[in-house]
């Protein structure tokens, strides 16, 4: 996996390379003094140690010219490599490299234990809102983003609140590392339709059971995403069009009401519900005025679906409730459940 190879690379660069360089200089010096000066192994080791320690050579046999040149090279090389090794090893322990390594290992363990989590691909404007809402609900999230500037913001804003992969979501290995085989949803909100389509294809190829939500920007793209296996397709163009039509054709902007309700703390336990009118209900063939739904249930009737029409927002007092109509209402669970009982039976 990419993250595991990153950990190995970090250890290699931080510790093995400088230590190997020091060992190489030491071995070359050890063998060089034996071959050039004819020292015994013990004397060569002793001479090499006092050379590196800069103690001096008072009790050592004088060197030949070749030995002197070799010693100069060993001292310069040892000094240079020594500084390099000390700097790299110090950075590893003091400047955060070790901390980074431990975080990567901890993240890998957390990823391996995650199940039924949400994978979000892309931290643009939409991705940010999606991530914020998922975190508010206390859900486990893996965010995948490859842009350096956005990744910096992610680290600053969220830190340990979720798993953050600095990687390319179009790479199958990255999706596997994000736990796609155990994830519940994948939400792809990358910059282009091509990227989102590729991620959708990859996700469904890797895990046929995962639910994929994807955003499309172009009007002719939804069919491609359906063929690719997307379970839910969100088009900003269609959402904007629906809102414009709602504002233009109704006296009440339903979407503004949704935004208002969603932002009020006192309404956090309220939600929208669909209640179907069944045979035997005393609501059938009554006007909304006569039905007295708000008085009987304390619900707000937002609109209704009839058997032959789309959502009708803000029904008038004279509109008639028919069999199989589905009323879109706003209230808490007990209020909605009360209306469902009324919709099934007479008083």
Overview of the molecule:
The chain has 347 residues and is of the alpha/beta class. It folds into three domains: 2-98, Helix Hairpins (Orthogonal Bundle); 114-234, Rossmann fold; 252-344, 2-Layer Sandwich (Alpha-Beta Plaits), CATH 3.30.70.1450. Helix content is 54%, strand content 13%. The protein has 14 helices and ten strands. It has helices spanning 2-37, 41-52, 65-94, 97-113, 125-136, 148-157, 172-177, 193-206, 222-228, 236-249, 254-262, 288-291, 293-297, 333-344; strands at residues 118-121, 141-145, 163-166, 185-188, 211-215, 232-234, 271-276, 300-305, 312-313, 326-331. Strands 3-2-1-4-5-6 form a six-stranded parallel sheet, with helices on both faces. Strands 7-10-8-9 form a four-stranded antiparallel sheet, covered by helices on one side. Helix 1 crosses helix 2, helix 1 (2-37) runs antiparallel to helix 3 and helix 1 (2-37) runs antiparallel to helix 4. The longest helix is centred in the N-terminal third of the chain and has 36 residues, at 2-37. It is rod-shaped and about 115 Å long. The chain starts with a helix and ends with a helix. The model has no long low-confidence stretch (mean pLDDT 81).
